């Protein structure tokens, strides 16, 4: 055997990851794909990589030094299970199987347990950054045993993106079993929220303030020099500058306004619902894509009455600055909620996730990479038990500075009939966190009225019920 790492599944992601691995000092990469043509094509196109080509699982296993380390990059679901099963049969105790696909974290938990019982290590690694990231440096979120990370860590560090600020590789041992895939899923959920907030800012500037896409491109480019600096803001400016070659119109105007999705946003919201963690910003983003993709409902709704003419803005520059601040504040809420769901899942599954380390590995290589993530890492380093990111000094001050503008933007959106579910739900969340009392008291009273669900009192311990249909006396029903 001569290869220290292998890749199974040589479609675009696997091939690029294999090439990335091969280009790094110290790695020798064995490759295997179910259909051998793919292996032959890759190996002949990239002689410089020095791949060890194999055409059977047995040969693949024989090519790897112990502990064998193989990264699977095939379709999530049944295909991944099939490949894991074949590798597990050919590998020996102590060997390491890594799933680099977009698996459901619950599948990863199940697979890890099954392989652990057979003496094998299973690492569920979220890999973000798409094809380009796989080739030039992704952000990697591995979950698995600490023992396997001793082998896997140096391999991943050799290929991960590096943060501009300090050159640190964007990979950390996230936690055990499903932790890595969970964090990758939440990364995607946050990506949905980020994109939705940017889209709302665009819509307000376009329809609210009447700017042309090319002008908004310049606004975004300007925003990208400040606290909003991020990959998504940068590419938004590029997209808005683009002119359609066929019609000469702004490109954004000729794209059908129905957003697609592949499921990770929905998974994030489903997980948050099960964990009882409000991630309203991410949920609104998933729902907004859903609403956009129901043309029959939108057609039926097109005649619903609105505010008539768009509202007249007195000062367009001031409005642009307000929108920037509303975007920043809403973004803080989306990330705060995203880290909340990671924290609650970590405690539910015993993952011990270091939120600051997660923020750090998102600084480069992945879609949500941004300057902002360095600040999040600092906030968690300063206070690892932080219960809500927005309450950390840096972020509470930033949200506090933005809140007046945020309120003006949300009210302008409502008055002008421009939907801004991300901005408005984030503001509602912020105000709910601040509220000295919530009307949950009334909800508890209602629940006790119709279902005898009981309530607690503010003035002492105990669980109580009022005889609503009788004499309305109160009885204590528990401690
Ligand atoms: P695909 O998801 O299209 O999967 C194709 C690969 O799966 C081929 O190598 C194919 O082999 C193999 N395969 C499918 N079924 C089986 C099976 N039953 N047994 C063995 N092999 C099988 O490839 P991608 O490169 O697009 O993606 C790979 C993984 O990476 C996926 O999990 C995907 O979700 C994830 N991904 C992640 C991205 C990111 O940004 N992180 C972006 C894109 C993908 P064959 O050639 O024989 O058909």
Automatic annotation (TrEMBL):
Keywords assigned: Gluconate utilization, NADP, Oxidoreductase, Pentose shunt
A Pfam family of this chain: NAD_binding_2
Pathway the protein takes part in: Carbohydrate degradation; pentose phosphate pathway; D-ribulose 5-phosphate from D-glucose 6-phosphate (oxidative stage): step 3/3
Record field: catalytic activity: 6-phospho-D-gluconate + NADP(+) = D-ribulose 5-phosphate + CO2 + NADPH
Matches recorded under PANTHER family: 6-PHOSPHOGLUCONATE DEHYDROGENASE
Subunit structure: Homodimer.
The protein, known as: 6-phosphogluconate dehydrogenase, decarboxylating
Protein species of origin: Leucobacter iarius
Encoding gene per record: gndA
